[in-house]
Amino acid sequence: MVLVAQVARAANQDDRMDVDADEEAQLLQREEFEFEDSTAAEAGFKKPQSSGLLDRLKGPDSLQIQTINPFFAKAQEFLPVWLNRRFPERRQKALLLGGILGIWVIAFIISLSAQLPVTNGSGIPVTNLDCVDTLWKHKNECGIDGINCHPFSNSSFSFNCPAKCASVKVLNPRAVGPLDVNYRSLVIGDETYRGDSFICASAIHAGVISNNGGCGRVTLLGRRDNYSSVERHGIRSIPFDSYFPLAFTVTSDFSIKCPSDPRNALLFLDILVTALLSIFTASPTVFLPIFIIVFAHVAFASDPPSASYRNTTVLPDHIASFAKRLLPALFCAVIIYRTTVRRTLHGLTAHVEKTFLWLGGFFFGALSNYTFDWIPIQRLTAHDLEQQPGAKVALAMILVVLVAIIAGQIYYFWLEGRLLRYLALYGLFLSGILVCLTIPGVSLRIHHYIIGLLLLPGTSMQTRPSLVYQGILLGLFVNGIARWDFDSVLQTTADLRGDGKFDSALPELLEPILSGTVEGLVASFQWATPPAVVDGISVLVNDVERSRQFFSDAEDGAKGFEWTRPVEEALNEYFRFGYVRGGRALDYTKAGTLFGNGTWSMAGSG
Fold first, then answer.
1. Both 236 and 138 in a single domain?
2. Residues 452 and 587 in one domain
3. Contact 279, 79 (CB under 8 A)
């Protein structure tokens, strides 16, 4: 009798649990339908016959709300059902979720120990470098004769490079003797590298570190001549057949206990945790913890933002950037969830498919610095598209794919009877873009996080393609914010130019006068009357600023530049001339060459 009573009580408890679950499901459905438009409750609703174009755009006669009919439904629902039976109370589920996230936080923090300060065998802190760090500053920041970039020799330091430096390229032309280098790694020389080469890429070229990062030692050598071009470890170096005042070598430093690259371990950890959350959880609110985990992965592991110049640890900078960007990103995530993600994931029972399609797409987009690295488009601006090889063709192919995807999504919106509303929404988006294009003084720049925000509403339906598209767009949004912050869609010309050209007037050079003296060859340069808007002229010799004259300093203005080549010097020398305005050098002419045999050739300006 006692056993029967216990069974009866258990049955009553189960009945009450089922009733509570049914009531909770009904409440959730009501809440969901309150958020969603009325078409969600009109599946199968037959509209009155009409032949007008507007009525046809409203949808078919019988609306069809899209839902995913899962493959092997019982298998995909097994784990969430088992978890619900094993932990039926909401408080138990909350504790379980908190425990999983707590374990993830601890494991994540332990993995980040690789970003703590490291010392070499002498106890001197190892310098953290960014992929674009050099010994010689760009844009004449080293001053006349490189005075601000000393020492040139008899100095060395240990360094630690991040991952993926082999693929980092210059995005605006850089002068290397007679060449204007663009869209390639800035590595000049072989074994001995010119001072303005990327240090980390040079270390990869030299075989000291891999593309996964690593440690080494830089030794400054002073002036070196004739830098050869060799392809090593996937990097083709740039030749330079003259001299430069600063060169360096990169060697291994076995006294450093270089930390291992944490990216692979963190990627495995984050995919594992988010996959468990996706498979075991039926509620669409799982999106929020997954969003935070993926955001942290980008911010600390796969594509962290740049840190302070040559510091001893990048961790404080990464923590500061993460804290600064996460809060506003979470605000956006809540809006995205309520308007888009909840409609797509609500009631979805294909949890394995959700994990592969939606979560897989999420990571695919978040890892865009790997997954989309092959696309020859660095920045979506007219200037970059014009000068980057293959960019226009790649953009055309992307647009063709987008048109096909959009056509498919339009069809599904039409089936659900929501097409007119979303056409109106995207009409507003397009109107906003057109207004931005008309604002004077600024240019429109569509960052990839903006692309994600603009296209995400078009994925607010429950189809397998929408799961993939939505995941990728969410990943692009996360990558854009975690790496680059909320960069403005309206930017000034100076912001877009960066270290690129000013498209300014160039000096018109006259034929130089060459004469021999006891000291060597003297080349005297003059130029035509400069425009009134410039203040002076700057002269580069072998890409080093050797003179800066201001027209107001002389009674008749600066009229010429004289260069003496020593008798023993027999190398080619490359001269570039550029105007100065407001204390800043503008664009330089193409290189003119003073050959080793004492003859001159001007490549022309422009």
1. yes
2. no
3. yes
> Does the pLDDT value for residue 23 go beyond 80?
no
| Coil vs helix vs strand at 600 | strand
State which residues form the domain around 415: 330-497
DSSP letter assigned to residue 520 = E
CA angle 234, 174, 302 (to 5 degrees): 50
At which residue do the structure tokens 């692979």 appear?
264
Domain-embedded: residue 222? yes
CA proximity to 84, closest of 96, 102, 72 = 96
Contact 261, 114 (CB under 8 A): yes
**If you average pLDDT over every residue of the chain, what do you get?**
88
> Integer distance in angstroms from the first to the last C-alpha of the chain?
101
Give the mean model confidence (pLDDT) for residues 456-461.
Answer: 96
Whether residue 560 sits in one domain with residue 468: no
Bond preceding residue 151 cis, omega within 30 of 0: yes
Task: Choose one of 222, 251, 280: the last residue of a domain.
Answer: 251
**pLDDT tens digit sequence for 363-379:** 999 999 999 988 888 77
**Domain CATH for 566:** 2.60.40.10
Decide if 532 is inside a domain. yes
Cβ atoms of 360 and 279 closer than 8 Å: no
Please tell me whether residues 341 and 456 are part of one structural domain.
Answer: yes
Q: Alpha carbon of 448 to those of 16, 387, 427, 436, 444: distances in Å?
A: 50, 20, 20, 17, 13
Q: Do the domain assignments include residue 179?
A: yes
Residue at token pair 């570039």: 576
What are all long-range contacts of 557-561, with beta carbons under 8 Å and residues at least 24 apart? 559/526, 559/527, 560/524, 560/525, 560/526, 560/527, 561/524, 561/525, 561/537
Sign of the Cα pseudo-torsion (576, 577, 578, 582, in order)? positive
CA dist 286 to 280, 341, 388, 433, Å? 10, 10, 41, 33
Longest dimension (CA), the chain: 123
Could you give the number of structural domains in the chain?
3
Rounded to 5 degrees, φ, ψ at 43 are -60, 125
Q: Are 515 and 522 in contact (CB under 8 A)?
A: yes
Tell me the pLDDT tens digit for each residue of 79-119. Answer: 999 999 999 998 999 999 999 999 999 999 999 888 889 99
CA 302, CA 292: separation in Å to the nearest integer?
14
∠ at Cα 525 (521, 530), nearest 5°? 170
Is residue 577 within 8 A of residue 505, CB to CB? The reply is no
The verdict on residue 16 lying in a domain is no
Beta bridge partners of 585: 580
Domain boundary residue among 188, 220, 251? Answer: 251
- Type of residue at 37: D
